[in-house]
Fold this sequence. Notes:
Blueprint: H1 2-23, H2 34-47, H3 70-82, H4 86-111, H5 114-126, H6 128-133, H7 140-155, H8 159-170, H9 176-191, H10 196-206, H11 208-223, H12 226-229, H13 242-256, H14 261-278, H15 283-298
Helix pairs in contact: 1-4, 2-3, 4-5, 4-7, 7-8, 7-9, 8-11, 9-10, 9-15
Amino acid sequence: MLIYKNKNLIVGALLVTLLFILKYPILNTPHFWDATLWIKSAYWTLNNNFNPVLPFPLENGGLDTGHPPLVFLSLALAFYLFGNSLITAHFVMLLFAVITIIFTYLLASYLYDEKVGIISSLFLLFSPLFFAQSGIVSLDLPLAAFTISTIYFALRNNIIGYLISGALLALSKEPGVLTIIAILVYIFIKNYKESKQELIKKCFIYSIPIIIFAIWIYYHAINQPIYNAISGSSEFWRPITPIIFFRFLNRLKFLFLENFHWVLTLIILITLSNTKKLIKITRKRLLISVLITLLLIYSFKA
């Protein structure tokens, strides 16, 4: 066990070192596009005693887009401790990238082995989208980081780790709640044969991040009319319309087919076809597995 932990520490340290070496040249890169809005939001949070409720409406020079406050509070705290600078902002985002890479390694190592963990984390590190985004101020980087860490802790039955990571996930960006829902479905399937009381207890514990998210929504609503905030860019709150549905289908197309993603999709399908010969999968379990997968995919919707 000690050797295993030491290996994890060594691999993690090497991955972190590699990331910082590769991203060091961009630490002074000016902010661009959405990042400028998030930085302004962090400055406002810092200058208003870490108030998480931003001014509105967005269309009239306000800052509130209806998003949870984790990124703004994290940046505001970093600015308070280390000063307002480009390096500080980019460094905070690199920390989220570190969490993503480390937990990708841990999750893959747990599901398969250390070799798969190393390969998976390196694939992630050198994927163009992640590499480009890993230093940019974004809400999606902590969303990815805490999605992976939350899934890892849930699979390891680490309740404390899950609750901390799940709460941070729910407060990173709204789609993170869908990951929690997917985990709840998994917990229900895994434990449905247990007593009703035990099943309710476990489902309640694993739903606490959703409760924390609901508390944030309520706090936001009583301090600012939420309908003004949600009229901004947060598509999570919009009703499911044909346009939103087709956007979702387009996202599925991008995830599974475009930019050579079809190669990975083909590998997954081949693997599943071989696995089916070894493991009997009922139609009910297959449909639930597809539901969990779609919830996780939709949770990364920008």
